[in-house]
Specification:
Chains A, B: GO terms for molecular function: transaminase activity. The structure is a homodimer of 473-residue chains. Chain A has 13 helices and 14 strands. By secondary structure, chain A is α/β, with parallel strands linked by helices. Chains A and B meet through α2, α3, α4, α7 and α8 of A and α2, α3, α4, α7 and α8 of B.
Chain lengths: 473, 473
């Protein structure tokens, strides 16, 4: 049964499993102890550090193991900010970072610091010029810039080398969150701090990496202890660390050939989805991207329902839509990109995915989307483009303007009601949608772009907002 | 080769190994995902939580898994303090807690809170009346009290139920660090928060427990995420969690019988060491104690050298002496107890330790101590009691008072020089030792008690301190 959620977590790599079992025998003791068992554990830990440092491209004494990628981000951000608190207390990060960065930014603000977001284009990409502008010639009081190497939801790769040059010119350290890319691609040059997470490359859960370049000011967050250079408190899980390092090496050895193969499958999905599914849009940078992640959104579809429909066909995928995974807001990534969030599906292919599985997925997708839309009574005709006019014909009466009250209705209902109403006004007429679901702010403009209608903007309303759309065709 | 450092870490329990391997297949996905792989991981996590909660004696929704016992303490202390910050910002803890508690206390002070230590008797035990006195009738502004169930260095069990009653009477929550006892003994009643660490009971590294009773105010430290009730951020290591829970159950099932057996071996060590080794003292409460830990100190011996001498004989033990594990100060536990720290050895027996190994250890110990003492030219004669007089005879000249300059000399040299000098004064005469090694403050009074000489106290000196001793015999 195809598992297409590799960006979330991968099963243990066979090499990781072997390394883990071998390290269980010698890696359970406290590596800080001078006795035989402690020294054996220390040898394993040192060897894993050397191996991982080589994969990362840093010195072993620059690399520490944390208990997760999230912890690596939390410690890296807090440590770099504290180390430079005399210079400034401003944290800059892209708007599409992992939520752990956003949480760290909120904690920094709560402690009296400031945080600023650097926006992205509709492909999810940061412009190096915007980083340079935010920093100015002297850094502008920034203590740290955080940018991921590639996005976890849409696969867009960031221009890390250019961003690093901008940071270096302003004298501000750059933290690169390499969680999604480290297994796949060489780490771009120029980082000051780098973080990653082992279960993204077939290592076990419970292991993150935090590398801090020599010379970067760093004050480990308290409470600390003497383990991992004071940067990651608590007893080390050495068998897991050994497995993580071995798996990183093995994964990267296979990555180039596998990336070329998966890139072909991802290209097929990117090309096929708009053709096979009416009113669907592929999101993320079309060229500068990870090899294995592709994301698309489907008008008039509920992301949660679509996940379940695909799961019923045996496909494990992920979604950044609202109403999924106990959240009621669309993913902050899709939000920052300003793209359609409803009916969102992320496909992230594990190494070894057979082409036939992708073919099966593409074969099953149209019916899955159609089923979800039908359950919502969505206005999609067979050719996907005739719906509005068909509605208009059925409605009979035509008014110059129509107000649709979607207050209290969750995504994707406001967009569905907009699509129904557009046929009730003449070309040139205006539909106003009253909605309080937060996804409407993203999805109504996206609907206009997809359906080639004119988005006139939103205005405040007593509850929620009023979104105005002019019918163009 | 005997491993007697169980209180530091244990090899993986066979049940933990089996559980780990079984959980590897189904426990690698993100348990927050709704797909099949995610749901399988969630089922394993839920089952592990139920099992561990039953072992702890709490509800599953009161229990969260952390990435170590240290992290459980850090999060538990910070969360409880933040949850009660309107009531008060004072943290009270015993003077013999795990260093993670002391680190959390320092971090709390750095953030503007206050911390206070509750002292222990020479056996390492907290008096419940002292807790009650520190809290007063209304808690005295205390937000939290931290007391371990049993000490990790000397094995002393704390009167947790009585301390809990004192806390309850004052309306202050009690955090019990059960890291050393949870595998061995029922958890004493009355705790508000409880922490533990899986690698102490044959679980893997990388898993701690934090239980917070319903109704206890708790504000998780930031940055947090949505995992583990917001109390432990980062991707869960589910196979390790499953192994930890299975191991706790298996360890406890064997604990009662095994504790009775090991208690006999520990009693044998406690009884034998003072008989076999001249000028050695067993430390820790003689009765109210863990079954498997015994600690003693040896006059005129360097703890680090003694560890190595025992390691050369194949025995892996631990030490709270200064000059071990890269620290230059004696263990804060021995310090708080006011007992001899030099030549300190902790023996902590793993389950299944054969009696013959303990016999071999007792047979090897006297020569190991004697070898270390000989290397330091320590004044110990064959019967261990005649040294001072023999020295006096050889010295010939006798002065009414002598000053020994041990400035710049590390432990155990100041005590060795004191022992040599005592024979140079007549009975009633005074030896003054100038020393700047911090262990001298602990070890000179302890020497006086062991050798039945009179400790007159210390006074400040330009460097270090002057310790005065009157010869009584």
């Amino acid at each position: 049964m195809p598992y297409f959620d590799a960006a979330s977590s991968l099963p243990l790599h066979p090499v990781a499993r072997q390394a883990f079992l071998a390290a269980l025998e010698d890696g359970w003791a406290d590596p800080a102890r001078p006795h035989r068992e402690g020294r054996r554990a220390r040898l394993l830990l040192d060897a894993a550090r050397e191996s991982a440092a080589e994969s990362v491209g840093c010195r072993p004494d620059e690399l520490t193991f944390t208990s997760s990628g999230t912890r690596a981000l939390h410690a890296g951000i807090a440590g770099a900010l504290a180390g430079r608190s005399r210079v400034g207390r401003r944290l800059l990060h892209s708007a599409v970072e992992h939520s752990a960065v956003l949480h760290a930014a909120r904690a920094h603000e709560a402690a009296g610091g400031t945080a600023g977001e650097i926006g992205v284009d509709s492909g999810g990409r940061v412009a190096p010029g915007e980083v340079a502008a935010a920093l100015g010639a002297d850094g502008g009081g920034a203590a740290l810039v955080c940018v991921q190497s590639a996005n976890h939801e849409v696969g867009t790769a960031q221009p890390v080398a250019e961003i690093a040059a901008a940071c270096a010119a302003a004298g501000v350290p750059l933290l690169v969150d390499a969680a999604q890319s480290l297994g796949w691609e060489p780490v771009p040059a120029g980082w000051s701090l780098l973080t990653a997470s082992a279960h993204k490359w077939g290592g076990p859960g419970g292991v993150g990496l935090l590398a801090v370049r020599k010379g970067v000011r760093f004050a480990p967050p308290a409470p600390a202890d003497e383990r991992e250079s004071g940067r990651s408190p608590g007893f080390e899980n050495i068998p897991a660390i050994v497995a993580a390092a071995a798996s990183l090496r093995a994964f990267r050895a296979e990555a180039e050939a596998e990336a070329a193969r998966l890139r072909g499958q991802v290209d097929l999905i990117r090309e096929s989805v708009p053709r096979l599914v009416p009113d669907a849009a592929v999101v993320g940078d079309p060229v500068r991207r990870l090899p294995h992640i592709v994301t698309f959104s489907c008008l008039y579809a509920d992301g949660e329902a679509l996940l379940h429909a695909l799961a019923a066909e045996g496909f494990a995928v992920s979604s950044g839509s609202s109403c999924t995974s106990s959240t009621l807001t669309p993913s902050h990534v899709l939000n920052a990109m300003g793209v359609l969030s409803e009916g969102n599906v992320r496909v992230s292919l594990p190494p070894g995915t057979p082409a036939a599985e992708v073919d099966r997925f593409l074969a099953a997708l149209p019916a899955a989307v159609a089923g979800v839309r039908a359950a919502l009574d969505a206005p999609v005709a067979a050719d996907g483009r005739a719906a509005a006019k068909a509605d208009a014909g059925e409605a009979g009466a035509v008014a110059a303007s129509v107000v649709v009250d979607s207050l209290g209705r969750p995504c994707p209902v406001p967009v569905i009601e907009l699509a129904r109403a557009i046929g009730k006004v003449p070309v040139g007429g205006v539909v106003t949608v009253l909605a309080d679901d937060v996804a409407a702010r993203l999805d109504i403009p996206a609907w206009c772009a997809l359906r080639e209608q004119e988005y006139l903007g939103e205005s405040p309303a007593p509850v929620g907002a009023a979104y105005r759309v002019r019918r163009l065709s």
